[in-house]
Design a protein that fits this description.
The chain is built from 10 helices and 2 strands. By secondary structure, it is an all-alpha fold. It has a two-stranded antiparallel sheet. Helix 4 (74-87) crosses helix 5 (96-105), helix 5 (96-105) packs across helix 8 and helix 6 (109-130) packs across helix 8 (158-178). The longest helix is centred in the middle third of the chain and has 22 residues, at 109-130. The two termini are 19 Å apart.
């Protein structure tokens, strides 16, 4: 990542926090020049990032000490959280699984079913290979499984179907992570800086 493409904004506080709504504005403004292959321009996450009221309400919900998943079951959320953390380290701290659960709760049926099918596909493959769902595998088993799935050839067989499942989930993970403050800081943003051009993100192609 090249931090030389950042410029200091004089007078901006260095320790201020910024809402996801403001982060989304920055991210969307940079989208035309954003080297971000893990999230297609047609992905639903982009539409939600334009909804300021939704993003404002999400802030309090995601940080609640009494948080519970709205759309996913507790078991599904745990499985997705484990997968997200391995795909993009730091996802748990960025509350990726919580944000995606909230996004899915207001999504249409087609997107919901596609997500659930992809998550079930990964869990099914995990059970086939190791006799346990993904969240209950050891870290070594989880990594081995995702590497195998994510590097499968795109040949139309079962392995390529599994790769499609993973890539579907990866888009949700990357979109949620890089629209968070943690993700934006990884891209090079800080409260006292602005992008003259947006640096490319390394995680989506650098992880399983």
């Amino acid at each position: 990542m090249k931090h030389s493409e950042l410029q200091i904004l004089a007078g901006s506080p260095t320790d201020s926090r910024i809402s996801r709504r403001e982060l989304a504005k920055i991210l969307l403004a940079a989208a035309p020049v954003l080297a971000f292959p893990a999230v297609s321009s047609a992905h639903p996450v982009w539409r939600h990032l334009t909804d300021s009221d939704f993003l404002d309400s999400a802030e309090a919900q995601l940080a609640s000490p009494n948080w519970k998943p709205i759309f996913l079951s507790p078991v599904q959320e745990l499985s997705f959280r484990s997968l997200a953390e391995l795909t993009v380290p730091g996802s748990s701290k960025a509350l990726v699984s919580r944000f995606v659960d909230l996004l899915l709760s207001v999504e249409d049926k087609a997107a919901q079913q596609k997500f659930l099918g992809s998550l079930a596909g990964i869990d099914g493959e995990s059970s086939t290979k190791f006799g346990r769902p993904f969240a209950r595998l050891t870290p070594q088993q989880q990594e081995s499984l995702l590497v195998s799935i994510s590097t499968a050839p795109r040949s139309g067989d079962v392995s390529s179907i599994m790769r499609g499942y993973f890539e579907d989930l990866k888009e949700w993970i990357a979109g949620a992570y890089y629209s968070s403050e943690i993700g934006m800081r990884e891209l090079g943003w800080t409260p006292d800086r602005a992008f003259s051009s947006f640096p490319g993100c390394s995680h989506p192609e650098g992880h399983p």
